[in-house]
Write a structure and sequence with these properties.
Elements (H helix, E strand, L loop, with lengths): L7 E8 L6 E9 L3 E11 L2 E5 L2 E3 L5 E3 L6 H16 L1
Antiparallel strand pairs: 1-2, 2-3, 3-4, 5-6
Length: 87
């Protein structure tokens, strides 16, 4: 797997109590230059995954506001967030 060298750090992770599918919210920092807020740790049918930030449009639909373009970058982001959640 190619690593494009994007530096990703979890800067905030808030775990949620209860039995809902969303287990935590977190913010990440990219390249010591950008903060992305509102990622979610979600319990899915096949285990935990990281949901990207989203916002609700005027039409009531939810739209993703941040999306990694490369699969290896998405995998790296997911691994880093889930490792932080597991601690």
């Amino acid at each position: 797997m190619e690593d494009h060298g994007v530096k990703i750090d979890v800067v905030r992770l808030n775990r949620l109590d209860g039995n809902g599918k969303t287990k935590a919210f977190c913010d990440i920092m990219l390249e010591d230059a950008f903060i992305v807020k509102g990622l979610r740790v979600v319990e899915g049918k096949e285990g935990l995954f990281v949901g990207m930030p989203r916002e609700q449009g005027k039409d009531g639909k939810w739209y993703t506001t941040f999306t990694p373009l490369k699969d290896d970058t998405k995998d790296k982001l997911q691994r880093i967030v889930l490792e932080a959640y597991a601690v």
